[in-house]
Specification:
- The structure holds two protein chains of two kinds.
- By secondary structure, chain A is an all-alpha fold.
- Chain A folds into three domains: 143 residues, no CATH class; 34 residues, no CATH class; 32 residues.
- Chain A is built from eleven helices and two strands, in the order αααααααβαβααα.
- Chain A has a two-stranded antiparallel ribbon with strand order 1-2.
- In chain A, helix 3 packs across helix 4, helix 4 packs across helix 5 and helix 4 crosses helix 6.
- The two termini of chain A are 17 Å apart.
- Chain B is an all-alpha fold.
- A two-stranded antiparallel sheet of chain B has the order 1-2.
- The two termini of chain B are 34 Å apart.
- In chain B, helix 2 runs antiparallel to helix 4 and helix 6 crosses helix 16.
- The chains are: A mainly alpha, B mainly alpha.
- At the A-B interface, helix 10 of A face helix 6 of B.
Chain lengths: 229, 337
């Protein structure tokens, strides 16, 4: 059973990564990934909603009529988004203001509805939980990668405004990687997000091609060893 | 790679890509020479660094893409991109501006789209737009003409400015005429009042007007050499002239004269050297006319009501986007259909 969950995780993180492979949820990704902390905020919010909606949809999957499933899924997702939104508004108010409309817009994030429809409505609760968690992590991971890329190139820092997320004590967390840097505005602006995500997808494709070529050269491994790898 | 195309037309001109590109470079020489006369030697360093960067990036990208390096390096297209971008950038810009702009143009705008012949956007203008958006301060700081400054930058001074970000030089930079005009108009001055300023010459900006005329001469030579067609430059300048004329008649206090628009900024350079890029422009005859006219109108609109003083790069990029659609709808009917 464990290997099954492992497969779900590897699938969501690499083979079927929501951003790099499925290209889902690009709108919030491109809009808020201008710094590491913004990315982290949105990534965690999306992951929480994804886990909640996946588990709930999986729980009610036998009770929901086929014809009504989409509106019901959307209502489930919207409830979780509302919870996350209110929580962020209460505890991470400054970050909430920066992310703005993109928190409520998680409702329309296609990753979430896609996972509810394609996975949670067909699988048991535990697998759906793993799927939601790992898909969310896959989303968050790319979001963080893009966020750090844009922040480093755009303003030469990393983890700036960390106090918005972790409280005042973390204000010093900001790392200035390039001192006396005049900034590269394009990376902060939307074109930088598009170019950045394009480069990340290209990078993934290169790695994947290399991996496939290596696998093709090697003789087929016995199943047990393959899983360890 | 074979460029031979088996479909009609079956007559081929003698021009190879290399010859075309070299002739374009030759046509730019008079304008560049006048540039040195009026604004100092900075432009020479810009061009040198741009060329070195472009050839380096081109070679690296060709290597990465597993294409033959030397034949593509010799075709000169990277050279033209580099030189066009270098003369669009202020001559007193620091060296890293040129480096970043040219590298972006060659790597992102040209090779990531598939290299020469496949790039939907004019690489030089992509580089320029990127720089203008990212470094507005450095990109709008132009050298003053010799008539306006006591600090004419000779080769040595220019090199210092180029390498050290103009420490120790005062009063060498200022706004371009288009920029100045825009600021003054926002201060409720009339055109006539603003044009009293010493940065204006007979027709446009002092210095700039002669450079534009030199580019005009180079462009006409290119048309005579059949390197470029007349359609794009003529429709470009005509549409810019007409729309400027209309607004000039409506209110000559608030809208600059059509001649000023044509002779200022990068209009002439854009019309003959940038908009005519054979890869990213429209290719049918009617298409070229629509394409050129679109650029002319967009330039006027962005210059007059937009946030940036000059608009050739944005106008060209926007029309580059439209070029495939324009070509689709202006496809000439084959004889007999």
């Amino acid at each position: 059973m464990l290997s099954n969950y492992g497969k779900i995780a590897v699938d969501s993180l690499w083979h079927n990564n929501p951003i790099l492979v499925q290209l889902l949820g690009l709108c919030p990704l491109l809009a808020v990934s201008s710094t590491f902390i913004n990315s982290l905020g949105l990534g965690i919010a999306t992951t929480l909603v994804l886990i909640g909606s996946n588990v709930t949809v999986s729980m009610i999957r036998h009770k929901v009529k086929q014809e009504l499933r989409i509106p019901i899924f959307v209502m489930v997702i919207a409830s979780f988004v509302t919870i996350v939104e209110l929580a962020m508004n209460a505890y991470l108010h400054e970050l909430y203001k920066i992310l703005g409309i993109f928190i409520p817009l998680i409702v329309t994030n296609c990753v979430i509805i896609a996972r509810a429809e394609a996975f949670a409505s067909k699988n048991d609760m535990k697998s759906s939980f793993i799927d939601g968690l790992t898909m969310g992590l896959g989303f968050t991971f790319i979001l963080l990668l893009l966020g750090s890329m844009r922040e480093i190139i755009g303003q030469g820092t990393l983890f700036s405004q960390a106090h918005l997320m972790f409280g005042e004590g973390f204000r010093e967390m900001q790392v200035t990687l390039i001192s006396d840097y005049s900034g590269f505005l394009l990376a902060i602006l939307p074109p930088g997000a598009f170019i950045g995500i394009g480069l990340l997808i290209a990078l993934r494709n290169v790695i994947e091609q290399k991996r496939k070529a290596r696998l093709a050269r090697q003789p087929v491994l016995p199943v047990a060893e393959h899983n360890q790898a | 790679m074979s460029l031979y195309s088996p479909s009609s037309p079956h007559f081929h001109a003698d021009n190879s890509v290399t010859q075309v590109m070299l002739k374009v470079l030759v046509a730019l020489v008079p304008g560049i020479a006048l540039y040195v006369v009026f604004f100092g030697f900075g432009i020479i360093f810009n061009i040198l660094l741009a060329v070195i960067t472009a050839l380096g990036c081109e070679a690296i990208m060709l290597k990465l893409r597993k294409r033959p390096v030397l034949p593509f390096l010799y075709d000169g297209s990277a050279l033209v991109t580099a030189v066009l971008l270098a003369i669009s950038i202020p001559s007193i810009a620091p060296w890293w501006i040129i480096f970043i702009g040219v590298a972006f143009a060659i790597v992102i705008a040209k090779h990531l789209y598939g290299g020469l012949g496949y790039n939907p956007f004019n690489p030089a203008m992509v580089g320029y737009a990127m720089l203008l958006i990212s470094y507005p301060k450095e990109m709008t700081n132009w050298a003053l003409t010799i008539s306006n400054t006591n600090n004419y930058l000779g080769p040595w001074d220019s090199l210092l400015v180029f390498l050290k970000d103009k420490h120790g030089f005062d009063g060498i930079s200022g706004a371009t005429p288009l920029d100045y005009l825009k600021t003054q108009l926002n201060l409720d001055m009339t055109i006539a009042e603003a044009m009293q300023h010493s940065s204006f010459g007979l027709l446009g900006g002092s210095g700039f007007e002669w450079i534009s005329l030199a580019f005009l001469a180079g462009g006409i030579w290119l048309i005579k050499q059949k390197i470029i067609n007349w359609h794009i430059p003529v429709s470009f300048l005509a549409s810019l002239f007409i729309i400027a004329l209309i607004f000039y008649f409506i209110d000559s206090d608030r809208y600059a004269s059509p001649v000023f628009h044509i002779i200022s900024g990068a209009s002439i350079l854009g019309a003959f050297f940038i908009a005519t890029d054979p890869v990213s422009a429209a290719t049918t005859v009617r298409g070229r006319i629509i394409y050129g006219a679109g650029i002319g109108v967009l330039i006027y609109v962005i210059r007059t009501w937009g946030g940036y003083p000059d608009a050739v790069a944005f106008a060209v990029l926007l029309m580059n986007m439209c070029a495939p659609t324009i070509d689709y709808y202006t496809k000439p009917k084959p004889y007999g259909h």
